[in-house]
Amino acid sequence: MKAAIAGAGNVGTHIANDLAEAGHEVLLLEQDPDVAARLRLVEGVKVVVADACEPTLLSAAGLETCDVMVSVTGDDEDNLVISLLAKQVFAVPRVVARVNHPNNQWLFNETWGVDIAVSTPHLLTALVEEAVSVGSLVRLLQFEDARLVEVTLAADSPAGNRAISELGVPRDATVVAVIRERHVIVPRGETVMEAGDEVLVLVTPDSEEAVKTLFVGAKAGSTGARTGD
User: Fold this and answer.
1) Contact assessment for residue 158 and residue 214, using Cβ atoms and an 8 Å cutoff
2) Is the pTM of this model over 0.70?
């Protein structure tokens, strides 16, 4: 895989080194030549001094050959422009963007070329809620057309003591894992749900409400923290 990363701050540099150590080819874009000169990078990371908001410079860097674009500058406006250019001008298959200000989260969607938006405050909120919430549906990750949700089954969950095949899970939703007593269970049709199980489900926006009813019940509260709306 060849990945381009815009922004050589702590986040961008760490991602670049991790990807390179995993055997991937990495193109790191940084507009400040002084910052670029001070970088400590592993073998496999190519640094290009360029403003990633400039199409001509992206073309010169070979962005069209990349499989993934990761935009992690400290400016949300720049991250949106970079994402849009990567997707619409250079046809990069996968675009991941960092959200610096939580109030800008709603902008980071496919309209701006973003496949996955990562907002640290929203992600931390979701992880905290996931750790303490029982009987409510919590959104953990947002993908382009789906999201990963988690629910810890309460004692009165409609899914309790029932096999997955009996629940009537929507066709566009999938139970991907069940965590029981710190052990991961690969879900099958005959897997019986128990109170206290942590259930991870991949859902679409259209199927999320039905999944919540199946595992939480009609009397449940609203869905928990959002990480990618």
Assistant:
1) yes
2) no
